[in-house]
Amino acid sequence: MNASPGALAFQRNMILNLPFIVDLNNLRARRQEIVDRSNQRENDNRIDYNYQVGNWVLVIADSYRTTSKLDVRFEGPFQIMQVHVNGNVTIRRRPGILEDHIVDSDDCPALVSHEEKSATNSS
């Protein structure tokens, strides 16, 4: 729909004094379609991984501390102490200090041991 924001808001042509008919349902449907496509494109890049207690994970370092491309990108490894039903995990930062962490496959990559790699490659 080729219309200015003012024409959409006031339902009048901004240059000529003419009414401008807006199909808001069509506009909402087109915007929702764009959101759905963008969401699907983002989710296609995700890796589905089931975290389990005892697994080791890395956590992305705070981006505000990263000043050069040679800085450390990940912290860890940290052991998973508890897996929650909503997708969060509790990791052990240091002995006696537990921290809840929201798991995102891009934000908290799992570490795979050499035994697990050889088992998955051979099958």
TrEMBL record:
The superkingdom of the source organism is Eukaryota
Write down what this protein is called.
Uncharacterized protein
Q: What organism is the protein native to?
A: Chaetoceros tenuissimus
